[in-house]
């Protein structure tokens, strides 16, 4: 992709002339007319506009021709400079030959440049507005990938618009109405706010290991329930092993065939596949560490889910929900202490109300829960249903359906 970047500088070269809104540059060469043409075009292009891709380059050097003692700048580039830099606003005139020198004059009409820039800026304003609208609409339906894509596509266009605005401000006074109006900051803030509630976890019951493959399910949910269309990636070290998006039930299935083991341990990182800046601001950049331990002698595999140490529970919810969770963990042999320096267990869950019934004048609410318990050694996730007089009561009923954390 090529970007047009406008750069205005002080015009100090002797062969660069300004007349009204016309800019002219005369190029000369003792080699060929084509080189004179290229020098004239590049002379204007270097001062006014660069349309340079990775396959193009321009070199400036001091040279002396014949017996002339003065030094001048020579502009050269690769073979296709004329076709790449002959913008529609530049007109090239071949001048009469002067002795052994070929000459050419490049003329740039600044009115045409200004008109073209204003047109492109109006197009950019419209495109950015469309990205904003689509990004906000995606947020409403919890399509965080779509919202992120729209935001990331719009941001470079803002920089492009402001660069053109800076150029125009050097040409003439500008009306305030020409300044870019956008709400991308609001889109980003709302997206990060939504991502703050996103949680992912690995369903330990889905783990299947063999010498040649390793498969498991990743659950994704927010405060409203399972998330579909959320991109998830699995890394081993810095290498991405696989990318998937969650389905309607909020689950992404991974089946890995290429991975490496150290001793009897396989260590992977499960991460939401969104731009790193968004992940850091929403706290999702740490991901979930999956450590899989296997024992060949017993011809079986198992995931370490707990140890004999005490843990500190991180539960960012209401006290009654956290108390219910603590009681559940203790019933399953996990010791919890109030010392925050201990190893951490993170509890996260999403919920949605399935139905509400009245019994003896009391509302009995049935919830669909997505529950996850994670730390550096294990990840346990379940989708369960529970009914009760309150959310904590329903959560306790759901916990009772779990027979073990293995």
Short account of what is shown:
The protein has 406 residues and is of the alpha+beta class.
Cα distance, first to last residue? 52 Å
Q: Mean pLDDT, rounded to whole units?
A: 76
- Order of H and E elements: EEEHEEEHEEHHHEEEEEEEHEEEHEEEH
Give, in spatial order, the strands making up the sheet with the most strands: 13-12-15-16-17
Structural class: alpha+beta
Number of strands: 21
Domain count: 4
Largest sheet: 5 strands, antiparallel
Q: What's the gyration radius in Å?
A: 32 Å
| Number of helices in the DSSP assignment | 8
Globally, the shape reads: elongated
Helix content: 25-40%
Question: What percent of residues are in strands?
Answer: 35-45%
Poorly predicted runs are 1-19, 49-86, 296-308
List the helices and strands and how they pair.
Layout (H helix, E strand, L loop, with lengths): L4 E2 L9 E4 L2 E8 L3 H16 E2 L7 E6 L8 E6 L3 H5 L4 E9 L2 E9 H31 L3 H28 L12 H12 L3 E11 L4 E9 L2 E2 L4 E6 L2 E7 L5 E6 L8 E8 L3 H7 L5 E8 L4 E3 L8 E4 L4 H13 L11 E17 L2 E13 L4 E10 L2 H10 L6
Parallel strand pairs: 18-19
Antiparallel strand pairs: 1-4, 2-3, 3-8, 5-6, 7-8, 9-10, 10-11, 10-14, 12-13, 12-15, 15-16, 16-17, 19-20, 20-21
Helix pairs in contact: 3-4, 3-5, 4-5, 5-6, 7-8
């Amino acid at each position: 992709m090529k970007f047009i970047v406008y750069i205005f500088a002080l015009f100090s070269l002797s062969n660069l002339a300004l007349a009204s809104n016309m800019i002219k540059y005369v190029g000369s060469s003792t080699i060929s007319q084509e080189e004179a043409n290229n020098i004239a075009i590049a002379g204007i292009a270097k001062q006014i506009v660069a349309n340079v891709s990775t396959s193009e380059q321009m070199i400036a050097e001091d040279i002396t021709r014949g017996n002339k003692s003065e030094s001048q700048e020579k502009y050269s580039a690769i073979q296709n400079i004329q076709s790449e830099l002959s913008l529609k606003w530049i007109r090239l005139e071949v001048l009469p030959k002067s002795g052994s020198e070929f000459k050419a004059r490049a003329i740039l009409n600044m009115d045409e440049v200004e008109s073209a820039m204003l047109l492109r800026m109006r197009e950019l304003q419209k495109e950015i507005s469309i990205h904003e609208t689509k990004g906000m609409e995606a947020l409403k339906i919890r399509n965080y990938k779509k919202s992120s894509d729209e935001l990331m596509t719009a941001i470079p266009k803002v920089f492009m618009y402001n660069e053109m605005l800076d150029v125009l401000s050097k040409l003439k006074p500008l009306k305030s109405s020409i300044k870019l109006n956008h709400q991308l900051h609001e889109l980003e803030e709302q997206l990060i706010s939504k991502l703050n509630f996103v949680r992912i976890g690995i369903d330990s019951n889905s783990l299947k290991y063999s010498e040649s493959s390793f498969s498991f399910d990743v659950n994704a949910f927010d405060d409203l329930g399972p998330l579909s269309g959320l991109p998830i990636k699995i890394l081993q070290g810095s290498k991405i092993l696989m990318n998937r998006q969650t389905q309607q039930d909020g689950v992404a299935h991974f089946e890995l065939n290429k991975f490496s083991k150290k001793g009897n341990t396989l260590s992977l990182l499960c991460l939401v596949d969104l731009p790193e800046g968004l992940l850091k601001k929403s706290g999702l950049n740490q991901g979930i560490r999956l450590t899989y331990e296997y024992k060949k002698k017993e011809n079986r595999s198992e995931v370490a889910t707990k140890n004999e140490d005490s843990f500190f529970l991180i539960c960012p919810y209401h006290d009654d929900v956290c108390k219910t969770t603590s009681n559940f963990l203790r019933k399953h042999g996990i010791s919890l202490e109030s010392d925050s320096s201990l190893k951490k267990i993170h509890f996260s869950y999403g919920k949605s109300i399935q139905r509400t019934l009245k019994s003896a004048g009391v509302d009995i609410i049935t919830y669909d829960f997505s529950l996850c318990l994670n730390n550096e050694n294990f990840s346990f996730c379940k989708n369960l249903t529970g009914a009760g007089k309150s959310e904590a009561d329903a959560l306790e009923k759901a916990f009772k359906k779990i027979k073990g954390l293995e």
